[in-house]
Amino acid sequence: MHSVVAIKQVPDTTNVRINPETGTLIRDGVPTIINPYDIHAVEMAVRLKEQFGGTVTVITMGPPKAAEALIECVEQGADRGILISDRRFGAADTLATSYVLAHAIEAIRAEHPVDLLLFGKQAIDGDTGQVGPGVATRLNVPLVSYAIAVESFDPVKRRAVIHRKIEQGVEVVEVSLPLLMTVEKEIAPVKRAPLSNMIKAATYKPEMWSADTPVQFDITQVGIKGSPTIVGKAFTPPPREAGAILSVAEKGLRDAVAQALTMIGQAHVVTVDLHV
Amino acid sequence: MSEQVETSSPRIWVFIEQEDGQPHPVSWELLGAAQRLANDLPGSVVEGVLLGHNVAGVAPQAFQYGAKRVYLIDDPILEFYRTMPYGMGISKLITKYKPEIFLFGATTLGRDLAGMIATHMRTGLTADCTELAIDPKQKILAATRPTFGGNLMATILCRQHRPQMATVRPRVLPMPDPIPDATGEIIREALDMNESDIPLRRLRLIPSEAKVNIEYADVIVAGGRGLGGPHGFKLLGELADALGGVVGASRPAVDAGWMDYEHQVGQTGKTVRPKLYIAAGISGAVQHTVGMSGTDFILAINSDPRAPIFQMANASIVGDLYEVIPELIKQVKGMRNGH
Amino acid sequence: MATKHTFDAIVVGGGPAGTAAALTMARSGLKTILIERGNFVGAKNFFGGVMYTHAIADLLPDFWERTPPFERPLTEQGYWMLAPDSVVRMTHKSEHYKHEPADAYTVLRAQFDPWLAEQASKAGALVVTRTAVLRVLQDSKGKVIGVRTDRPDGDVYAPIVIIAEGVNNLLTQRLGLIKNDLPPRFVALAVKEYISLPAKDIQARFGLTGANEGAAIDIFGDATMGLPGTAFLYTDKAGISIGVGMLLDEFIQHKLRPYEVLARFKNHPVIQPYLEGGKPFEYGAHLIPETGYDRMPKLAADGVMVAGDAAGMVDALHREGTNLAMTAGRMAGLTAIKAHQAGDFSATFLNQYRQDLENSFVLKDMKQYRRMTDFLDTTPHFMGTYANFLNDVALRYFTAHGIPKRDMERQIVGMLQERRSFFGVAQDMVKLLRAMRG
Ligand SMILES: Cc1cc2nc3c(=O)[nH]c(=O)nc-3n(C[C@H](O)[C@H](O)[C@H](O)COP(=O)(O)OP(=O)(O)OC[C@H]3O[C@@H](n4cnc5c(N)ncnc54)[C@H](O)[C@@H]3O)c2cc1C
Ligand SMILES: Cc1cc2nc3c(=O)[nH]c(=O)nc-3n(C[C@H](O)[C@H](O)[C@H](O)COP(=O)(O)OP(=O)(O)OC[C@H]3O[C@@H](n4cnc5c(N)ncnc54)[C@H](O)[C@@H]3O)c2cc1C
Ligand SMILES: Nc1ncnc2c1ncn2[C@@H]1O[C@H](COP(=O)(O)O)[C@@H](O)[C@H]1O
What we know:
The complex is a heterotrimer of chains A (about 280), B (about 350) and C (about 450). With about 350 residues, chain B is of the alpha/beta class. Chain B is about 25% helix and about 30% strand. Chain B is built from 8 helices and 18 strands. Chain B has helices at about 25-40, 60-65, 85-95, 110-120, 230-245, 250-255, 285-290, 320-335; strands at about 10-15, 20, 20-25, 45-50, 70-75, 100-105, 125-130, 130-135, 140-145, 150-160, 165-170, 185-190, 200-205, 220-225, 245-250, 275-280, 295-300, 315-320. In chain B, the strands form 4 sheets. Chain B has a 7-stranded parallel beta sheet with strand order 7-11-6-1-4-5-12, sandwiched between helices. Chain B has a 5-stranded parallel beta sheet with strand order 15-14-16-17-18. Chain B has a 3-stranded antiparallel beta sheet with strand order 8-9-10. The relative contact order of chain B is 0.11. With about 450 residues, chain C is of the alpha/beta class. In chain C, the strands form 4 sheets. A 7-stranded mixed beta sheet of chain C has the order 7-6-15-16-17-14-18, sandwiched between helices. Chain C has a 6-stranded mixed beta sheet with strand order 9-3-2-13-20-19. Chain C is built from 16 helices and 20 strands. Chain C folds into 3 domains: about 5-35 and about 130-180 and about 290-370, FAD/NAD(P)-binding domain, CATH 3.50.50.60; about 185-290, D-Amino Acid Oxidase, Chain A, domain 2, CATH 3.30.9.90; about 375-435, no CATH class. Classes of the chains: A alpha/beta (about 280), B alpha/beta (about 350), C alpha/beta (about 450). Chains A and B meet through helix 3, helix 4, strand 9, strand 10 and strand 11 of A and helix 3, helix 4, strand 7, strand 9 and strand 10 of B. One flavin-adenine dinucleotide (FAD) sits at the interface of chains B and A.
């Protein structure tokens, strides 16, 4: 049983600040984390490994610093981490990202066949959720997005039954292996890793892949060149204008409330008749 | 198979999402947006794309919301949504008819599908847009979306690849008024697939319990951490009832278990577009306000005169919500009783 | 399948003390594990901002080639005495500070601590993060034999454990090395904000010529509402570190919230222009031990040594802590190496560590200022009274009133006597002198 998990290191958006002058993200000093959904994908892979044996490979495309995230995955029980990092991969949109990941996975599975591909449902920096479906399409494997539970998994009969969250409820699908799942956090609560994993990870060095070694990537499909979308402009959202401020302390409770209701009434927004 | 479709005029396509023959209202919001784009893109035409089994009945509604034509693939294989057959079917249509722009709802279905199609067509896809426009100079789609937790808006362009694709969250765009007697043309295409080609099948659906649909409510009374506990939502519920609305919540209130996730408004919750939004004990963080800034009238109630929510509210009451809300309930009820 | 994890030495805590100890031991070949509970080393650590290079050089003679993440060298330092609406400034700027590496730099701990930990890793130390030590393991005779972490299969064994857990020294307390939790009198609480600001604005406001200059200013008087404590304003590369610190006791007694004291300080008419247009980026609160020489814990017992803030090694008057911590960590590490050579991990042997510290600036300074906390404790009016006095004097002195200067001088003396009797002043000065002299 061999699973490949794609993870992304993202800025912790709870700490994100924008430079109001340039409208760009201030990355300095902003802590990075593993995209919260992705760590659950790793956990799912580790659980299947515990059940069926085998290996968990984790890949990421990102700057050299992203090696930290791979090491954290080794702490969680992954066996192998590959960082695909090259200047030329920078500023990739989801199409270029899915190319790089799909091409890397092709190289990995040529050496060691892959039964399961795991992705997070979306990355919290871009919130697109497009990379998983993109990789599934490129590799021509069935896609199960928004997975919340694995009901059964049979690496021998090569079938899995998976629950996925959709608007109408929970859809239960049967799917053949290999498959690609994008996961919600519910898929597997993250367990606290044992100290032996931590000790192993403390000296673990992820493999580093560039655009030409050990695998040759098609340079026209990566980075800015391989990205059909470009950012035209970035700006902070225009504010709504503030309206009247009614202070209970100044106007008294009854009047403050009455005035607010009158304003709502005058705006004709509600069908309930607010003033008589 | 009809071939009388003109090929010269740029096509703006909207995916008409349906489940069991029930169209998702976001499809109509998208048709409205597509019409506005068409006005800025001379000669262009707005068309719908509809897939499913026995769903032709949905097409007339698409005409009423502005589609001139609906491309329909009706096949038993398409009875339930599955990425592969839907994606292949639509990719075929794209190859044949070459639309300029293709819009999808950013629903679970729409995101899954658009992601596949964009990759298959090797084109650009902008996710979760909040605003669509035609760039006046280049005459291409300018799709604006929040990034980095709503702190920043980015306008994305796709210059060379076609179609230019985007998904748009439900309720971010206004619902257009239907034109009752509008009609249009249905163009049927075949799927040409076998069930045995498809590696995935639905075993069953566990429907979620009857849920509130705050996305389409006209009045929302929302509470946040300032409620201090689940009991506060009882009070808000009472006010919501008096106003004929529903209850919404900020994320901390949901995380604390005071309210179900279904009620959460904001970046990681629902986008709402009510006529009246009452925010009680909500500070007004950007991740919350991106989900409700399309509201017509915002009334904010907060004890802190510097609460950021006051910057965007049409009317603000500075005071303790545990005094203000009961008074609101009293006065609203009083009005309805004609006092 | 619990594995037994055995090392030559265990270090608890990845602050300057712990990392220095781990680096020292690993470099000499000891199989060393450093356990840090933060997400990464330095994740939650913060301080005012001045790092002294002498201690780094003792640890890593070639540190300069290893490009430490320094912010700005200090080329101007000094004190401001703040009254509610004025300030008396006394700072020292000198070309003599300008050499590379400089004597002191401002740093951000979230960058410096990981760098130092990386040097320890390079030296061979195993750095394990996201793991907290819950307690120290002892044999039946009380000898320390390892630690228990909060992870499954999380016990680690070693003949020597160095505790460098910082000011919240729970492990030190549980081992009985110190009596009990420090009373609020002997611990200060500091809050700090890092405010980002373009480098050119910082340079213009502080009169610096470029990134090769920096200022560190400690502020007394109205900054802490006249209560015993200090505030600080340090320049970083593209930001300002601003904070206030007061004895925890004072916060409690006067029902003050630390953040409000800082907010008040930031709004002071003298301070506010320095911050104008800056974006608050980070906010934090941290304790500083004001333990003092006489109340320090036992520094060694069988199989264990304590270093840094955990042992109260801070010289608050000169805002020095990291250099004491790093020096102590290094000395504890050297003692551990000798203990391994001798095969003796007894308290008696390890006490050599205390001896080394007594011979160094660490305990010499601690000893000299042993009465400082008591001085502030018994002279709480000191800061407020004299800072205001200085400001009033300055105003008097620099304003012409058309009266003879001699009369003005008398008025000034009168102003002091109004506030404090002659004996009061004399008493304060004698006490201060004693506190300074040790
Ligand atoms: C990636 C990301 C996604 C997020 N997604 C969402 C999201 O989808 N939705 C969302 O809401 N948040 C979201 N957040 C969280 C968001 O940043 C804020 O933390 C959150 O919106 C704050 O909720 P609040 O206003 O209820 O609480 P607070 O900010 O704590 O505000 C409580 C308010 O109540 C007031 N108050 C207290 N007592 C009273 C009283 N008695 N009477 C009147 N007023 C009172 C206080 O003055 C205060 O203004 C997200 C954050 C991140 C990082
Ligand atoms: C506001 C402020 C301003 C200061 N200004 C200066 C200054 O300008 N110059 C200066 O030299 N000093 C200054 N200091 C003092 C200086 O920060 C400390 O003296 C120094 O950091 C002490 O180093 P340490 O290694 O002993 O402890 P710390 O730096 O506190 O490190 C302790 C480490 O141990 C970890 N830890 C604790 N318990 C456990 C556990 N059970 N398991 C695992 N890990 C654990 C912590 O996470 C932490 O990383 C200042 C302090 C403050 C608060
Ligand atoms: N650069 C990347 N490297 C590895 N995996 C990625 C990368 N970007 C996205 N992913 C994966 O794709 C998922 C969805 O990301 P996104 O489409 O960007 O929202 C993430 O949760 C990751 O599993």
